[in-house]
Amino acid sequence: MGKRTNHIRQKSAYRSAERAGKLAELLIYLYFACRGWRLVKWRYKTPFGEIDLILQRKQHMRFLEVKYRTKFISSDNPVTSQQLQRLSRAAHFAHMKLTSPHHTSCQFDVIVLTRRGKLHHFENHVFF
């Protein structure tokens, strides 16, 4: 097997993972939309990184990092400490840009969706 074949496989695997991640984000959005949350931004880019979903319900803003995993054990940590720092800075930036003084509360959640449809919700994972 040559280098070119390996590169093509890696590209294909990346595309599959990207599609699975986008689908997971859509499913999580629909999950929250059914509970009264309105989409503010999807894949919001900041100088510190991207926030997958930003939702609002009344005066509450929710910043979501969505992870898709083929397998997930609840004792696993879905994000590294370095990722948490980056996500925290991105959420703080988005909070300052997107919210007005009447927004009374914000939170940042990490959600893991597995291939079998199991949802692992880590609420208030990053505080700012």
Secondary-structure element pattern, one letter each: HEEEHEE
CATH topology: Trna Endonuclease, Chain: A, domain 1
Poorly predicted parts: none
Rg result: 16 Å
The CATH architecture category equals 3-Layer(aba) Sandwich
Give the overall silhouette: globular
Supply the helix-strand structural class.
alpha+beta
Q: Could you say how many structural domains there are in total?
A: 1
Q: State the distance separating the first and last CA atoms.
A: 49 Å
Whole-number mean pLDDT = 86
Major beta sheet, specifics?
5 strands, mixed
Determine the fraction of residues in helical runs and give it as a percent range.
25-40%
Number of helices: 2
Number of strands: 5
Give the strand order of the largest sheet, numbering strands 1, 2, ... along the chain. 1-2-3-4-5
Strand content: 35-45%
State the name of the first-level CATH class: Alpha Beta
Describe it for me?
This protein is α+β, with helices and mostly antiparallel strands. The protein has a single domain, classed as Trna Endonuclease, Chain: A, domain 1. Helix content is 38%, strand content 36%. The chain has 2 helices and 5 strands, in the order αβββαββ. It has a 5-stranded mixed β-sheet, with helices on both faces. It is globular and about 60 Å long.
Question: Would you spell out the secondary-structure blueprint of this structure?
Answer:
Layout: H1 3-33, E1 38-46, E2 49-57, E3 60-69, H2 81-98, E4 105-114, E5 119-126
Parallel strand pairs: 3-4
Antiparallel strand pairs: 1-2, 2-3, 4-5
